[in-house]
Amino acid sequence: MDDLLLHEWTEACTLLDGALVSPNVDAYFEVRARWRKVEETVRAVLGDIGALPLVHDDSPYLRALVAGETIVPSELLERLAMDPSLLVRVAVAGNPMTPASALSLLYRDGSWHVRSELAANPSSPGWMMTFLASDRSAGVRATVAAQPRMPSPILGRMAVDADWRVRFGGASNKSTPSLSLRELAGDPDSRVAAQAKKTLRMAFR
Predict the structure, then answer these.
(1) pLDDT for position 51
(2) pLDDT of residue 149
(3) What pLDDT, on the 0 to 100 scale, is given for residue 56?
(4) What pLDDT is stored for residue 58 in this prediction?
(5) Contact of 28 with 22, CB cutoff 8 Å
(6) Residue ranges of the alpha helices (H) in the chain?
(7) For the chain, which end, N or C, has fewer CB atoms within 10 Å of the first or last residue's CB respectively?
(8) Are 28 and 119 in contact (CB under 8 A)?
(9) Is the dihedral of CA 97, 122, 83, 53 positive or negative?
(10) Positions in the chain whose pLDDT score sits under 50
(11) Closest-CA residue to 195 (of 175, 170, 178, 176)
């Protein structure tokens, strides 16, 4: 990795590290989106397994690159799932190629950021998604509510969650029952109501 790319990756990881200890849920998702874009750029340069030699590196930023690789031995991802660095565990939890054996090590992780990544991971098994739907963190529940593969009864329940972020996640989901979407269109939170109306319009085009 050239110096300029390494600097860009380090900067993005530093920002995400800061967001991981911030109580601001919205800020975390914004910083994470930027981190993902930089990650895509780095991977395009390194190739499919270009980061594998970095697995033993002292820097959690470089181990996080390995944790997000699409071609990584299962036993290696299981080891990284127990990494002391939160950033590395976030990367493992969000990797769609992470096997169920490694994902199962993370669904009770103490950080809601890790659990939120699991909720967005298409490889997370159904039982885990059901478990996360009742997570104590609104950030995790909001991520679950936005997933189209969730069963209608669970989405209907999440549509009346006390936290607006969870209801917004449900309002953005075409799989949310139409009755729930119509109720969300009248939500007292204008952001939720506007998103529900938008989803309803798209559903009946």
Answers:
(1) 55
(2) 96
(3) 62
(4) 77
(5) yes
(6) 3-20, 25-46, 60-67, 74-80, 86-94, 100-103, 112-120, 126-132, 138-145, 152-158, 164-171, 178-184, 190-203
(7) C
(8) no
(9) positive
(10) none
(11) 170
**What is the model's pLDDT at position 73?**
84
**What phi, psi does 118 have (nearest 5°)?**
-60, -40
- Reduced to 3 states, what is the DSSP secondary structure of residue 57? coil
Tens-digit pLDDT profile for residues 77-132: 999 999 999 999 999 999 999 999 999 999 999 999 999 999 999 999 999 999 99
**Rounded to an integer, what distance in angstroms lies between the CA atom of residue 127 and that of residue 150?**
11
Positive or negative, the CA dihedral 66, 67, 68, 69 is positive
What is the predicted pLDDT for the residue at 55? 62
DSSP 55: G
Q: Token match 């002391």: residue?
A: 84
Cα distance between the two ends of the chain = 47
8 A C-beta contact, residue 146 and residue 122: no
47 Rama class: left (phi>0) / alpha (psi -120 to 50) / beta? left
Q: What is the pLDDT of residue 205?
A: 66
Give CA–CA dist 118/94, Å, rounded. 6
Residue 111 — left, alpha, or beta (φ > 0 → left; ψ -120 to 50 → alpha)?
beta
Tokens of 143: 């991520």
How far is Cα 1 from Cα 14, in angstroms, rounded to an integer? 18
